[in-house]
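Sequence in, structure out. Go.
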Amino acid sequence: MATWATALTLDSSSPLMEQLIFFHDHALSILLIITILVGYLLTELLFNKQINRFLLEGQLIELIWTILPALTLIFIALPSLQLLYLIDEMKNPLISIKSIGHQWYWSYEYSDFKNLEFNSYMIPPQESQSYHFRLLDVDNRTIVPFNSQIRLLVTAADVIHSWTVPALGVKIDATPGRLNQIKFLLNRPGLFFGQCSEICGTNHSFMPIVLESISPSNFIKWIKSQV
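Output:
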C-alpha cells in the first residue's frame, strides 16, 4: 500500500510487478543518460565562443544523431514488447475468479467452487474500526492463495470500471458486454489494496479492492467454510 512521501514504486508482490519495475529502471536509466548528454551539449554550446566560418554541412554528425535515437528506441521497445506478451501469457491457471464492476462496488464469483459469490463494499468511515484502513477496506475481502496462478475475468454491469492493484502490476478494464482476462501470481502473504482507476461516476473513489493472500491450505479451509 502506498504511504506518504513514497518516491519509488511499491515493493513487488508478484513476478510480473518485478519485471515492470526492472523495465521502469531500465527506461529511466536511458532517459537519465540522454538528459545529462543533452544538458552538457547545450551548456557547451551556450558558453563557448568558438566558431567555424567554413562549416557548411556535417553529414557524419547528422548520420550519428539519426541512428543513435533509433537504437535507443529499440533498446526501450524490445523489453516493452516482451512485457506485453508476458502480461497476456495464460498458462494453466489454478483458480479462475470473476470480478464484476457495479456502481459503486465489486462483486466476485469463484466459479470453480460451486459458484461461490459475494459483494465487496467499502466500509464507511463512520463504521470503520481502528484496524480498518480508512476508505480502503471492504466488508468482504477477495481471498486468494499465494504461489498459485490465478486467472481473473473482469466485466462490468453498468459503466466502464477498471480493476487495478498496483502491488501486483495489474490493471484491466471492466467493460459492459465484454469479458477481459488477466493472470497474476502472488509470491507472499499479505493484504493488497487497489481501487477503480476509471472515472465511473459520483462514487468512483469509493469502490476499493482488497486482496488477502493466504497459504493454499488456509485457502482450502476458507472455501470449505463458505460452500
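Check: Strands lie at 95-102, 105-110, 116-120, 142-145, 150-156, 161-165, 170-174, 180-184, 190-196, 209-214. The radius of gyration is 24 Å.
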